[in-house]
Amino acid sequence: MASHSTKIIERPLIRVGRGRIEITASSDDLERARQSYLDRHFIALPGLLEIGTINWILDRLATAAFEPTDDDHRYLSGLQPVDRSINSALSFLFNDPQILSFVRLVTNCGPIDGFGGRVLRFEPGGEHYVRWHDDSETGPHRVMTLRINLSRRPFRGGVLQFRRDRGEPVLSEYDDKTCGNAVLFRASQSLHRNTPILGGAAKTTFTGWFYRGNPVDKAG
Q1: Class of domain 14-211
Q2: d(C-alpha 190, C-alpha 171), whole Å
Q3: Cβ-contact 72, 129 below 8 angstroms
Q4: Model pTM score
């Protein structure tokens, strides 16, 4: 498999906390991020969530009940919280104008009108999966996809892979299992999947979409 290395950015570009957002990227950092986006279809965002926000989310999820998603099973099978209030709280957090501006700046993606997302969980064993798809297939208003790792314990597998078109080899992959780290990638013209969860803990993420216009699809 010919694929690019993942970890091209080692320090935070932006830090997001409840009530505090800090852009930490230098001009050189932003240029490297843009080049990663062009070459690999994604931008790694290490340390995106501040530790206090991580702990607040993990505490909420520790007592949450989960149920199967109602997604198109051609693409995705997993679990979601029964209580959707965590989705609303995190979507509100990432609708901040500073974050929208940062995403536009680092990707040159054009106008963004808002953000919506949800928590997803994938257990090992083969029942849960994310197969090759383009996010614009399930949400035509989606511009950029953000995926944040919220797994409290290590898991094996669950590597995010990219390719340009169906039938083509894997172009690049993202395999960072640090809680609070994230990846940003284009929602359209970017086929991606998760490799199977092979063991250990479940993989839990907050996955959301920066959208343009008035989205008619569900936030997930």
Answers
A1: mainly beta
A2: 10
A3: no
A4: 0.91
Tokens of 156: 């094996």
Q: Give strand pairing partners of 16.
A: 21, 49
Specify the residue for token string 């994604």.
42
- The band of 220, judged by pLDDT with boundaries at 50, 70 and 90, is very low
**Residue 94 corresponds to which tokens in the numbers above?**
């990432």
Q: What are the sequence ranges of the domains in the chain?
A: 14-211
Token pair recorded at residue 192: 């991606």
Tokens 């944040």, located at residue: 148
Q: What one-letter code names the amino acid at 115?
A: F
Burial (0-12, 13-18, 19+ Cβ within 10 Å), 107:
buried
**What are the angstrom distances between the C-alpha of 113 and each of 63, 94, 103, 199?**
33, 12, 11, 38
